[in-house]
Design a protein that fits this description.
single chain, prenyltransferase activity, Farnesyl Diphosphate Synthase, metal-binding, mainly alpha, transferase, Isoprenoid_synthase_dom_sf, Polyprenyl_synt_CS
């Protein structure tokens, strides 16, 4: 069972079945493909997206095997986007394990990500209606548009908060929202309940990504290597954007435009992001999204799954990793 879900064994057990289905679905006669994908699948992610799909489905009348298939589709889609992200970012590690692109090369990683996308549609097309496929396609489109938007704004240090929020809506919140939506849609819930759960997914995804960006600056005085790579490539996260807006001296902007990313400069960036209220302001916005999610959760019928949702979202706001 996934360690993250040890306090919720019912969810954890279903997620174990989701993982096994992904392994079975992606197993290939070519050992190279099987080995490469197996490493990506079993690298220890929290599996939040399939878990939220299952929790959402359990508010209605659902078939367990269908929820497991849909959960596998959502997680494979997520893994495929991570494989492609690591190519773009030239990341050496993913969840503490050597990334696919580092281990097998960029060319192979491109095809491995594509292979996972293809398996998503193979699994969903054989068991579900066209409407579900349309939702999946829409999420992929949103992710791609978010990535392209982010790329188009590289090295533009006067970007506003709205541009950042638009990017993470596509990159992160869209897949969270779709996880809730598809779980609810395939469980005979009313339109109102589907909309409530979808909205919870969107708000949770927004908070999740903002908190993720905050973690880059919250531990100590040292910037993480992944954060340094983002800055080198001109990608700005919300704490940096807030700090740039608040920095009347323009020291942070000047530093980002001229630095060669030596250790002293990076430590100074870290200090300026925090001293210009970038971290606190970003955390405050994450809390606003989280509170809105709780408002929607309060509209759901009382149940164990409602309690689990509240616990997990509270934990996300206070997480350290």
């Amino acid at each position: 069972m996934n360690e993250f879900w040890k306090d919720y064994p019912h969810i954890g057990n279903i997620l174990s079945e989701v993982t096994q289905l992904i392994i079975d679905t992606t197993k290939d006669s070519d050992d190279f493909i099987t080995e490469a994908i197996s490493g990506a699948v079993t690298s220890g992610g929290k599996m939040l997206r399939p878990a939220f799909l299952i929790i959402s489905a359990e508010f209605g009348s659902y078939k367990r095997e269908n929820a497991i298939r849909l959960g596998a589709v959502i997680e494979m889609l997520h893994i495929a986007t991570l494989v492609h992200d690591d190519i773009i970012d030239e990341a050496k590690l993913r969840r503490g394990v050597e990334s696919v692109q580092s281990k097998y090369g960029k060319d192979s990683a491109v095809f491995i990500g594509d292979y996972l996308f293809a398996k998503c549609f193979t699994l969903i097309s054989s068991h579900f209606e066209t409407k579900t496929m349309e939702k999946l396609s829409g999420a992929i489109l949103s992710i791609c548009k978010g990535e392209l938007k982010q790329y188009s704004l590289r090295y533009k240090y006067d970007n506003g908060i709205f541009s950042y929020l638009k990017i993470i809506t596509g990159k992160t919140a869209a897949l969270f929202a779709m996880s809730f939506h598809i779980g609810a849609m395939n469980s005979d819930l009313s339109d109102r309940q589907v909309k409530i759960l979808t909205r919870i997914g969107y708000l949770t995804g927004m908070a999740f990504q903002i908190i993720d960006d905050c973690l880059d600056y919250s531990d100590n005085q040292t910037i993480k290597k992944s954060t340094m790579n983002d800055l080198k490539q001109g990608y700005l996260t919300l704490p940096v954007i807030y700090a740039l807006n608040n920095d009347k001296s323009n020291e942070l902007k000047t530093l980002l435009e001229t630095t060669n990313f030596n250790e002293n400069d990076l430590n100074r960036v870290h200090h300026l992001v925090k001293s210009n209220n970038g971290l606190d302001a970003a955390r405050l916005l994450a809390r606003k999204y989280t509170n809105k999610a709780f408002n929607y959760i309060s509209k759901l019928p009382d149940s164990e799954n409602k309690n689990i949702l509240e616990d997990i979202i509270k934990g996300m706001l206070n997480r350290k990793y």
